[in-house]
């Protein structure tokens, strides 16, 4: 099987477009189409359903894509090991991060690591915790840094850094200053249902941690007035800043707003929200040299 044809197929699968795949690989669209057609003829099956401008993989396409990831990973491993023989750390690491690690934690690590090992290429993917965990599980990412975990026996979670979740609110939210004292807004758990909230989407580690903290107080998160649901911490904080409701977010994302007085910290009686950001990796996948050095770098 020609590796160039397989690469063209992979790009069409990932981008959902022959023309975009051509742009990515610096090839013409007819060349990309010819590569995919040659693969289909070689395998005696159709790899994509072409529905007008929509490209959807067939079941055979899904199977080939899954195995193609292993093929390209193996090639990267081979190049990395050969570079290691020359005492040169090189290769590509596909790193994922949920929104807080990707925005506030990983950039510092990546900057120092790539300065130390300039021949290593790093691609950073951002998503909520469950998205990143899913991509690590499927092999689309080498590793991830996330704020939650699951019970998949094939996944290994290693704590990286501790985080505190804070509730914050704008001083301009009507009525909130009646509860302000000594630099903080103080609320009883029973009062949480009385205020509008800006929450992260289902699947985020922040949402999961807040849900658990509420449950410990006997409160169902579905009973809150969730006026806004947002996919990023930045959106959550900005919505709270403009007075749309109380928000729950990492201290990394909100501390500067609190220091300036743009947002006020909220203390809820009996509630404390601590969590760990963890490195997640697929225990069944080969750890090639560049990734092994990156893991060692993160753990120091």
Secondary structure blueprint with pairings:
Layout: H1 3-15, H2 18-25, H3 29-43, E1 48-51, E2 54-57, H4 59-85, E3 91-97, H5 99-116, E4 120-126, H6 129-138, E5 143-146, E6 155-169, E7 180-181, E8 184-187, E9 196-200, H7 205-216, E10 225-230, H8 233-241, E11 246-250, H9 251-260, E12 264-268, E13 274-282, H10 289-299
CATH superfamily of the domain at 163-273: Periplasmic binding protein-like II
Q: Which residues form runs of ≥5 with pLDDT under 50?
A: none
What is the overall number of helices? 10
Mean pLDDT value? 90
Radius of gyration based on Cα positions = 23 Å
Fraction in beta strands = 25-35%
Characterize the biggest β-sheet: 11 strands, mixed
Structural classification: alpha/beta
How much helicity do the residues have? Answer: 40-55%
Question: What is CATH's topology name of the domain at 163-273?
Answer: D-Maltodextrin-Binding Protein, domain 2
Oligomer designation:
single chain
Number of strands: 13
What is the N-to-C succession of helices and strands?
HHHEEHEHEHEEEEEHEHEHEEH
Our measurement of the CA-to-CA distance between the termini, rounded to an integer number of angstroms, reads 42 Å
CATH class of the domain at 163-273: Alpha Beta
Identify the overall geometry: elongated
Assigned CATH architecture of the domain at 163-273: 3-Layer(aba) Sandwich
Describe the structure.
Helix content is 44%, strand content 26%. It contains ten helices and 13 strands. The chain has helices at residues 3-15, 18-25, 29-43, 59-85, 99-116, 129-138, 205-216, 233-241, 251-260, 289-299, and strands spanning 48-51, 54-57, 91-97, 120-126, 143-146, 155-169, 180-181, 184-187, 196-200, 225-230, 246-250, 264-268, 274-282. Strands 3, 4, 5, 6, 7, 8, 9, 10, 11, 12 and 13 form an eleven-stranded mixed β-sheet that branches. A two-stranded antiparallel sheet has the order 1-2. Helix 1 packs across helix 2 and helix 2 packs across helix 3 (29-43). The radius of gyration is 23 Å and the shape is elongated.
